[in-house]
Amino acid sequence: MIDCHYVEPTTVDEACRLLAEHGDGGMVVAGGQVLSLLRYHGLIEPSCLVSLQHVAGLDGITAEEEGVKIGAMVTLHRLESVGQEHPTLWALSEAVKNIADRQIRNHGTLSGNICAAHQASDINTVLMALNASVKLVNPNGERIVNLHDFVTDAFTTTAEPGELLTEVIVPHFATPRSAAAYHRFALRAGDYPVVSVGTFVSLDEAGLCLEGRIVLGNCLGAPTHAAEAEQRLQGCNVVQDDQSLAEAANLAAANVTPWDEPMASGEYKKDLVSVLTREALTEAVASAVAVK
Amino acid sequence: MKYPLSLTVNDENYDILVEPYHTLMEAIRDGVGLTGTKCACDDGRCGACTVLLDGTLVKSCLVPALQAQGKSVLTIEGLGTPDNLHPLQVAFLEHGAVQCGYCTPGMLLTAKNLLDENPDPTEEDIRTALRGNLCRCGVYTHATQAILSTAKRDTA
Question: From the CA of A43, how many Å to the nearest CA of chain B?
Fold first, then answer.
Protein backbone atom coordinates (compact mmCIF):
# COMPACT_ATOMS: atom_id res chain seq x y z
CA MET A 1 0.00 0.00 0.00
CA ILE A 2 1.28 3.46 -0.93
CA ASP A 3 1.97 5.81 1.97
CA CYS A 4 -0.74 8.45 1.73
CA HIS A 5 -0.38 12.10 2.76
CA TYR A 6 -3.08 14.62 3.62
CA VAL A 7 -2.80 18.35 3.06
CA GLU A 8 -5.15 21.25 3.73
CA PRO A 9 -4.31 24.23 1.52
CA THR A 10 -6.03 27.54 2.24
CA THR A 11 -5.81 29.12 -1.22
CA VAL A 12 -6.62 27.94 -4.75
CA ASP A 13 -3.01 28.63 -5.84
CA GLU A 14 -1.63 26.45 -3.06
CA ALA A 15 -4.10 23.66 -3.86
CA CYS A 16 -3.12 23.71 -7.55
CA ARG A 17 0.58 23.68 -6.70
CA LEU A 18 0.11 20.68 -4.40
CA LEU A 19 -1.93 18.82 -7.01
CA ALA A 20 0.72 19.52 -9.65
CA GLU A 21 3.47 18.30 -7.32
CA HIS A 22 1.74 14.98 -6.72
CA GLY A 23 0.69 14.38 -10.35
CA ASP A 24 -1.62 11.41 -10.85
CA GLY A 25 -1.29 10.42 -7.17
CA GLY A 26 -2.80 13.69 -5.98
CA MET A 27 -6.55 13.63 -5.44
CA VAL A 28 -8.93 16.35 -4.46
CA VAL A 29 -11.22 15.83 -1.47
CA ALA A 30 -14.22 18.13 -1.58
CA GLY A 31 -17.02 16.53 0.49
CA GLY A 32 -15.46 13.07 0.27
CA GLN A 33 -18.73 11.29 -0.53
CA VAL A 34 -17.44 9.63 -3.71
CA LEU A 35 -13.80 9.43 -2.69
CA SER A 36 -14.57 7.44 0.48
CA LEU A 37 -16.52 4.95 -1.63
CA LEU A 38 -13.81 4.55 -4.26
CA ARG A 39 -11.21 4.09 -1.55
CA TYR A 40 -13.37 1.57 0.29
CA HIS A 41 -13.79 -0.52 -2.86
CA GLY A 42 -10.05 -0.35 -3.53
CA LEU A 43 -10.49 1.49 -6.83
CA ILE A 44 -8.08 4.32 -6.02
CA GLU A 45 -4.76 4.49 -4.21
CA PRO A 46 -3.86 8.17 -3.85
CA SER A 47 -0.44 9.26 -2.61
CA CYS A 48 -1.82 12.59 -1.39
CA LEU A 49 -5.30 13.81 -0.53
CA VAL A 50 -5.74 17.55 -1.06
CA SER A 51 -8.69 18.71 1.01
CA LEU A 52 -10.53 21.81 -0.19
CA GLN A 53 -12.30 22.26 3.13
CA HIS A 54 -10.27 25.31 4.15
CA VAL A 55 -9.70 26.87 0.73
CA ALA A 56 -11.26 30.31 0.85
CA GLY A 57 -13.73 31.57 -1.72
CA LEU A 58 -15.15 28.32 -3.08
CA ASP A 59 -18.62 28.46 -1.54
CA GLY A 60 -20.26 31.45 -3.19
CA ILE A 61 -23.34 31.62 -5.42
CA THR A 62 -23.44 34.92 -7.32
CA ALA A 63 -25.22 36.29 -10.39
CA GLU A 64 -22.68 38.02 -12.64
CA GLU A 65 -22.55 39.20 -16.23
CA GLU A 66 -21.61 35.79 -17.69
CA GLY A 67 -24.19 33.91 -15.65
CA VAL A 68 -24.76 32.46 -12.22
CA LYS A 69 -21.46 31.33 -10.74
CA ILE A 70 -21.53 28.51 -8.21
CA GLY A 71 -18.45 27.73 -6.12
CA ALA A 72 -16.92 24.26 -6.16
CA MET A 73 -17.62 23.61 -2.46
CA VAL A 74 -21.31 24.51 -2.50
CA THR A 75 -23.11 21.50 -1.04
CA LEU A 76 -25.89 19.66 -2.83
CA HIS A 77 -28.21 20.56 0.05
CA ARG A 78 -27.71 24.28 -0.64
CA LEU A 79 -28.49 23.71 -4.31
CA GLU A 80 -31.92 22.34 -3.38
CA SER A 81 -33.18 25.88 -2.76
CA VAL A 82 -30.95 27.85 -5.15
CA GLY A 83 -33.67 27.92 -7.83
CA GLN A 84 -35.81 30.20 -5.69
CA GLU A 85 -33.22 32.96 -5.77
CA HIS A 86 -31.83 32.27 -9.25
CA PRO A 87 -34.66 31.15 -11.59
CA THR A 88 -32.10 30.00 -14.19
CA LEU A 89 -31.16 27.23 -11.76
CA TRP A 90 -34.68 26.03 -11.05
CA ALA A 91 -34.22 22.73 -12.94
CA LEU A 92 -30.91 22.16 -11.15
CA SER A 93 -32.65 22.49 -7.78
CA GLU A 94 -35.34 20.04 -8.82
CA ALA A 95 -32.71 17.55 -10.00
CA VAL A 96 -30.68 17.78 -6.80
CA LYS A 97 -33.67 17.01 -4.55
CA ASN A 98 -33.70 13.43 -5.84
CA ILE A 99 -30.01 12.74 -5.35
CA ALA A 100 -29.28 10.10 -2.69
CA ASP A 101 -30.51 11.32 0.71
CA ARG A 102 -30.23 14.26 3.07
CA GLN A 103 -27.04 13.00 4.76
CA ILE A 104 -25.15 12.71 1.47
CA ARG A 105 -26.50 16.01 0.12
CA ASN A 106 -25.37 17.72 3.34
CA HIS A 107 -21.69 16.86 2.79
CA GLY A 108 -21.53 16.15 -0.94
CA THR A 109 -20.49 19.05 -3.14
CA LEU A 110 -21.24 20.33 -6.62
CA SER A 111 -17.65 19.90 -7.86
CA GLY A 112 -17.34 16.46 -6.32
CA ASN A 113 -20.41 15.24 -8.18
CA ILE A 114 -19.23 16.76 -11.47
CA CYS A 115 -15.64 15.50 -11.26
CA ALA A 116 -16.62 11.98 -10.17
CA ALA A 117 -18.19 11.93 -13.64
CA HIS A 118 -20.59 9.10 -12.89
CA GLN A 119 -22.40 8.19 -16.10
CA ALA A 120 -25.77 8.66 -14.38
CA SER A 121 -24.90 11.96 -12.63
CA ASP A 122 -28.10 13.98 -12.35
CA ILE A 123 -26.05 17.14 -12.00
CA ASN A 124 -23.95 16.67 -15.11
CA THR A 125 -27.06 15.87 -17.16
CA VAL A 126 -29.06 18.90 -16.06
CA LEU A 127 -26.05 21.23 -16.18
CA MET A 128 -25.34 20.22 -19.79
CA ALA A 129 -28.95 21.02 -20.64
CA LEU A 130 -28.32 24.45 -19.07
CA ASN A 131 -25.15 24.80 -21.24
CA ALA A 132 -22.96 25.20 -18.15
CA SER A 133 -19.20 25.65 -18.20
CA VAL A 134 -16.56 24.98 -15.57
CA LYS A 135 -13.62 27.14 -14.56
CA LEU A 136 -10.38 25.18 -14.21
CA VAL A 137 -7.45 26.81 -12.45
CA ASN A 138 -3.86 25.56 -12.79
CA PRO A 139 -0.54 26.87 -11.46
CA ASN A 140 -0.04 28.91 -14.65
CA GLY A 141 -3.48 30.28 -15.29
CA GLU A 142 -7.06 29.25 -15.86
CA ARG A 143 -9.43 28.12 -18.59
CA ILE A 144 -13.19 27.97 -19.04
CA VAL A 145 -14.44 24.71 -20.55
CA ASN A 146 -17.96 23.77 -21.57
CA LEU A 147 -19.11 20.91 -19.34
CA HIS A 148 -19.75 18.82 -22.46
CA ASP A 149 -16.00 18.99 -23.22
CA PHE A 150 -15.01 18.40 -19.59
CA VAL A 151 -16.97 15.24 -18.74
CA THR A 152 -16.24 12.99 -21.70
CA ASP A 153 -16.83 9.43 -20.53
CA ALA A 154 -17.71 7.39 -17.43
CA PHE A 155 -15.45 8.49 -14.56
CA THR A 156 -13.44 10.54 -17.07
CA THR A 157 -12.81 14.27 -17.27
CA THR A 158 -10.35 16.30 -19.27
CA ALA A 159 -8.81 17.88 -16.16
CA GLU A 160 -5.02 17.91 -16.28
CA PRO A 161 -2.86 17.10 -13.25
CA GLY A 162 -2.59 20.29 -11.21
CA GLU A 163 -5.93 21.60 -12.41
CA LEU A 164 -8.71 22.42 -9.97
CA LEU A 165 -12.36 23.02 -10.75
CA THR A 166 -13.18 26.19 -8.84
CA GLU A 167 -16.59 27.19 -10.13
CA VAL A 168 -19.46 26.33 -12.41
CA ILE A 169 -20.93 29.00 -14.66
CA VAL A 170 -24.54 28.66 -15.76
CA PRO A 171 -25.23 31.27 -18.45
CA HIS A 172 -28.29 33.52 -18.15
CA PHE A 173 -31.11 32.69 -20.55
CA ALA A 174 -30.62 34.78 -23.70
CA THR A 175 -34.33 35.34 -24.22
CA PRO A 176 -37.01 35.76 -21.56
CA ARG A 177 -39.32 32.94 -22.64
CA SER A 178 -36.82 30.21 -21.75
CA ALA A 179 -36.95 27.33 -19.32
CA ALA A 180 -35.31 24.03 -18.48
CA ALA A 181 -36.73 20.84 -17.01
CA TYR A 182 -35.31 17.58 -15.74
CA HIS A 183 -37.03 14.21 -15.53
CA ARG A 184 -35.59 10.96 -14.26
CA PHE A 185 -36.64 7.38 -13.65
CA ALA A 186 -34.99 5.36 -10.87
CA LEU A 187 -35.78 1.88 -9.57
CA ARG A 188 -35.48 3.03 -5.94
CA ALA A 189 -35.85 6.44 -4.29
CA GLY A 190 -32.44 8.03 -3.89
CA ASP A 191 -30.75 5.73 -6.38
CA TYR A 192 -29.00 6.79 -9.56
CA PRO A 193 -31.47 7.13 -12.43
CA VAL A 194 -31.86 4.32 -14.97
CA VAL A 195 -32.32 7.12 -17.50
CA SER A 196 -32.69 10.85 -17.04
CA VAL A 197 -33.34 13.67 -19.46
CA GLY A 198 -32.54 17.36 -19.15
CA THR A 199 -34.25 19.73 -21.57
CA PHE A 200 -34.10 23.43 -22.35
CA VAL A 201 -36.20 25.51 -24.72
CA SER A 202 -36.26 29.18 -25.63
CA LEU A 203 -39.33 30.48 -27.48
CA ASP A 204 -40.21 33.68 -29.31
CA GLU A 205 -43.45 35.57 -28.66
CA ALA A 206 -45.35 33.43 -31.18
CA GLY A 207 -44.18 30.16 -29.61
CA LEU A 208 -41.55 29.29 -32.22
CA CYS A 209 -38.63 27.37 -30.73
CA LEU A 210 -35.46 29.44 -31.09
CA GLU A 211 -33.27 26.85 -29.42
CA GLY A 212 -33.88 23.45 -27.91
CA ARG A 213 -31.50 21.28 -25.95
CA ILE A 214 -32.04 17.66 -24.96
CA VAL A 215 -29.42 15.84 -22.88
CA LEU A 216 -29.69 12.13 -22.08
CA GLY A 217 -28.25 10.77 -18.83
CA ASN A 218 -27.01 7.21 -18.18
CA CYS A 219 -27.37 6.11 -21.81
CA LEU A 220 -23.69 6.40 -22.78
CA GLY A 221 -20.50 6.95 -20.77
CA ALA A 222 -21.23 10.66 -20.37
CA PRO A 223 -24.47 12.63 -20.68
CA THR A 224 -25.04 13.24 -24.37
CA HIS A 225 -26.96 15.70 -26.54
CA ALA A 226 -29.73 14.22 -28.69
CA ALA A 227 -28.64 16.30 -31.69
CA GLU A 228 -31.25 15.13 -34.22
CA ALA A 229 -34.05 15.71 -31.74
CA GLU A 230 -32.72 19.17 -30.91
CA GLN A 231 -32.72 20.06 -34.63
CA ARG A 232 -36.30 18.84 -34.96
CA LEU A 233 -37.43 21.45 -32.44
CA GLN A 234 -35.72 24.36 -34.16
CA GLY A 235 -38.26 26.74 -35.72
CA CYS A 236 -41.28 24.62 -34.73
CA ASN A 237 -44.23 26.18 -33.00
CA VAL A 238 -43.92 23.93 -29.98
CA VAL A 239 -46.79 25.66 -28.17
CA GLN A 240 -49.46 24.99 -30.80
CA ASP A 241 -47.98 21.80 -32.24
CA ASP A 242 -47.20 19.39 -29.46
CA GLN A 243 -46.69 16.68 -32.07
CA SER A 244 -43.23 18.19 -32.62
CA LEU A 245 -42.35 17.37 -29.01
CA ALA A 246 -43.45 13.75 -29.45
CA GLU A 247 -41.46 13.50 -32.69
CA ALA A 248 -38.37 14.97 -31.05
CA ALA A 249 -38.75 12.48 -28.20
CA ASN A 250 -38.97 9.59 -30.65
CA LEU A 251 -35.94 10.88 -32.56
CA ALA A 252 -33.97 11.09 -29.30
CA ALA A 253 -34.77 7.43 -28.60
CA ALA A 254 -34.16 6.25 -32.17
CA ASN A 255 -30.70 7.79 -32.36
CA VAL A 256 -29.17 6.53 -29.12
CA THR A 257 -27.91 3.04 -28.28
CA PRO A 258 -27.89 2.98 -24.48
CA TRP A 259 -25.65 0.55 -22.65
CA ASP A 260 -27.26 -2.49 -21.04
CA GLU A 261 -27.42 -2.80 -17.28
CA PRO A 262 -28.41 -5.90 -15.28
CA MET A 263 -31.69 -4.26 -14.26
CA ALA A 264 -32.39 -2.35 -17.48
CA SER A 265 -31.66 -3.37 -21.05
CA GLY A 266 -30.67 -0.84 -23.69
CA GLU A 267 -34.02 -1.38 -25.42
CA TYR A 268 -35.88 -0.61 -22.21
CA LYS A 269 -33.81 2.52 -21.76
CA LYS A 270 -34.73 3.67 -25.26
CA ASP A 271 -38.40 3.54 -24.25
CA LEU A 272 -37.57 5.56 -21.16
CA VAL A 273 -35.69 8.12 -23.28
CA SER A 274 -38.79 8.63 -25.41
CA VAL A 275 -41.17 9.02 -22.46
CA LEU A 276 -38.89 11.17 -20.31
CA THR A 277 -37.90 13.42 -23.21
CA ARG A 278 -41.53 14.10 -24.05
CA GLU A 279 -42.35 14.80 -20.40
CA ALA A 280 -39.35 17.07 -19.85
CA LEU A 281 -39.93 18.99 -23.10
CA THR A 282 -43.61 19.46 -22.27
CA GLU A 283 -42.70 20.83 -18.85
CA ALA A 284 -39.98 23.12 -20.21
CA VAL A 285 -42.34 24.54 -22.87
CA ALA A 286 -45.09 25.11 -20.29
CA SER A 287 -42.62 26.88 -17.97
CA ALA A 288 -41.26 29.03 -20.81
CA VAL A 289 -44.78 30.07 -21.85
CA ALA A 290 -45.59 30.95 -18.23
CA VAL A 291 -42.67 33.41 -17.98
CA LYS A 292 -44.17 36.86 -17.54
CA MET B 1 1.17 8.06 7.41
CA LYS B 2 -0.94 8.79 10.49
CA TYR B 3 -2.14 12.28 11.35
CA PRO B 4 -3.37 13.66 14.68
CA LEU B 5 -7.10 14.30 14.84
CA SER B 6 -8.64 16.39 17.61
CA LEU B 7 -12.39 16.33 17.84
CA THR B 8 -15.18 16.56 20.36
CA VAL B 9 -17.52 13.62 20.64
CA ASN B 10 -20.58 14.03 22.86
CA ASP B 11 -18.95 17.01 24.61
CA GLU B 12 -15.69 15.18 25.41
CA ASN B 13 -12.41 16.00 23.69
CA TYR B 14 -10.43 13.26 22.00
CA ASP B 15 -6.97 13.27 20.41
CA ILE B 16 -6.42 10.26 18.18
CA LEU B 17 -4.30 9.25 15.18
CA VAL B 18 -5.88 8.42 11.81
CA GLU B 19 -4.77 7.60 8.28
CA PRO B 20 -5.77 10.17 5.60
CA TYR B 21 -8.26 7.73 4.07
CA HIS B 22 -9.89 6.76 7.33
CA THR B 23 -13.52 7.72 7.64
CA LEU B 24 -15.21 9.50 10.52
CA MET B 25 -16.95 6.21 11.33
CA GLU B 26 -13.59 4.46 11.78
CA ALA B 27 -12.38 7.36 13.95
CA ILE B 28 -15.46 7.13 16.18
CA ARG B 29 -15.55 3.34 16.48
CA ASP B 30 -11.85 2.41 16.46
CA GLY B 31 -10.17 5.64 17.61
CA VAL B 32 -12.60 7.00 20.17
CA GLY B 33 -13.99 3.56 21.03
CA LEU B 34 -17.70 4.36 20.83
CA THR B 35 -19.43 1.55 18.96
CA GLY B 36 -23.02 2.80 19.07
CA THR B 37 -22.38 4.27 15.62
CA LYS B 38 -22.99 1.16 13.52
CA CYS B 39 -21.12 -0.07 10.49
CA ALA B 40 -23.48 -2.02 8.25
CA CYS B 41 -23.09 -1.45 4.51
CA ASP B 42 -19.93 0.67 4.82
CA ASP B 43 -20.61 2.31 1.47
CA GLY B 44 -23.09 5.05 2.16
CA ARG B 45 -26.34 3.29 1.43
CA CYS B 46 -27.85 2.25 4.76
CA GLY B 47 -27.44 5.20 7.14
CA ALA B 48 -26.68 3.07 10.23
CA CYS B 49 -23.54 5.21 10.78
CA THR B 50 -25.45 8.52 10.73
CA VAL B 51 -24.14 11.13 13.19
CA LEU B 52 -24.40 14.90 13.60
CA LEU B 53 -21.18 16.72 12.66
CA ASP B 54 -21.26 20.31 13.91
CA GLY B 55 -25.05 19.93 13.86
CA THR B 56 -25.16 18.64 10.27
CA LEU B 57 -26.54 15.17 9.58
CA VAL B 58 -23.94 13.03 7.78
CA LYS B 59 -23.14 9.40 7.06
CA SER B 60 -19.91 8.97 8.98
CA CYS B 61 -18.70 6.18 6.67
CA LEU B 62 -18.46 8.72 3.82
CA VAL B 63 -16.85 11.65 5.65
CA PRO B 64 -13.04 11.68 5.69
CA ALA B 65 -12.03 11.61 9.36
CA LEU B 66 -9.58 14.49 9.00
CA GLN B 67 -12.38 16.75 7.74
CA ALA B 68 -13.80 16.50 11.27
CA GLN B 69 -10.69 18.22 12.68
CA GLY B 70 -11.74 20.55 15.52
CA LYS B 71 -15.39 19.76 15.03
CA SER B 72 -18.07 18.46 17.33
CA VAL B 73 -19.78 15.10 16.82
CA LEU B 74 -23.00 13.85 18.38
CA THR B 75 -23.39 10.07 18.38
CA ILE B 76 -26.11 7.88 19.86
CA GLU B 77 -24.14 7.68 23.13
CA GLY B 78 -24.61 11.46 23.51
CA LEU B 79 -28.32 11.50 22.75
CA GLY B 80 -29.46 9.88 25.99
CA THR B 81 -28.21 7.50 28.67
CA PRO B 82 -29.76 4.23 29.86
CA ASP B 83 -30.96 6.08 32.98
CA ASN B 84 -32.05 9.18 31.15
CA LEU B 85 -33.30 8.32 27.69
CA HIS B 86 -34.00 10.96 25.08
CA PRO B 87 -37.76 11.36 24.41
CA LEU B 88 -37.24 9.89 20.95
CA GLN B 89 -35.64 6.80 22.47
CA VAL B 90 -38.58 6.43 24.86
CA ALA B 91 -41.01 6.75 21.94
CA PHE B 92 -39.10 4.15 19.89
CA LEU B 93 -39.41 1.72 22.82
CA GLU B 94 -43.10 2.51 23.37
CA HIS B 95 -43.92 2.01 19.69
CA GLY B 96 -41.81 -1.10 19.26
CA ALA B 97 -39.80 0.69 16.59
CA VAL B 98 -36.82 -1.58 17.20
CA GLN B 99 -36.28 -5.13 16.05
CA CYS B 100 -32.64 -6.09 15.52
CA GLY B 101 -31.73 -2.51 16.45
CA TYR B 102 -28.87 -2.08 14.04
CA CYS B 103 -30.42 0.85 12.16
CA THR B 104 -31.80 2.46 15.33
CA PRO B 105 -28.87 4.75 16.29
CA GLY B 106 -28.82 6.29 12.81
CA MET B 107 -32.59 6.59 12.69
CA LEU B 108 -32.68 8.33 16.06
CA LEU B 109 -30.09 10.91 15.01
CA THR B 110 -31.97 11.53 11.77
CA ALA B 111 -35.16 11.92 13.81
CA LYS B 112 -33.47 14.35 16.21
CA ASN B 113 -32.19 16.41 13.29
CA LEU B 114 -35.67 16.47 11.74
CA LEU B 115 -37.37 17.65 14.94
CA ASP B 116 -34.65 20.28 15.52
CA GLU B 117 -35.37 21.71 12.05
CA ASN B 118 -39.10 21.08 11.96
CA PRO B 119 -40.73 20.55 15.39
CA ASP B 120 -44.13 19.79 13.84
CA PRO B 121 -43.52 17.44 10.89
CA THR B 122 -46.18 15.66 8.88
CA GLU B 123 -45.99 11.91 8.34
CA GLU B 124 -44.77 12.67 4.82
CA ASP B 125 -41.97 14.90 6.20
CA ILE B 126 -40.86 12.03 8.44
CA ARG B 127 -40.88 9.51 5.59
CA THR B 128 -38.81 11.89 3.47
CA ALA B 129 -36.35 12.51 6.31
CA LEU B 130 -35.87 8.76 6.87
CA ARG B 131 -35.05 8.13 3.21
CA GLY B 132 -31.35 7.73 3.99
CA ASN B 133 -31.91 5.20 6.81
CA LEU B 134 -32.62 1.65 5.71
CA CYS B 135 -34.13 -0.96 8.05
CA ARG B 136 -34.08 -4.58 6.96
CA CYS B 137 -36.57 -5.54 9.68
CA GLY B 138 -39.03 -3.00 8.32
CA VAL B 139 -39.81 -0.88 11.38
CA TYR B 140 -40.53 2.18 9.24
CA THR B 141 -44.20 2.43 10.21
CA HIS B 142 -43.45 2.12 13.93
CA ALA B 143 -40.51 4.53 13.71
CA THR B 144 -42.66 7.06 11.85
CA GLN B 145 -45.36 6.84 14.53
CA ALA B 146 -42.75 7.12 17.29
CA ILE B 147 -41.31 10.31 15.78
CA LEU B 148 -44.79 11.71 15.18
CA SER B 149 -45.80 11.07 18.79
CA THR B 150 -42.61 12.73 20.10
CA ALA B 151 -43.30 15.80 18.00
CA LYS B 152 -46.92 15.95 19.18
CA ARG B 153 -45.82 15.62 22.80
CA ASP B 154 -43.22 18.38 22.38
CA THR B 155 -45.52 20.80 20.56
CA ALA B 156 -48.58 20.11 22.74
Answer: 13
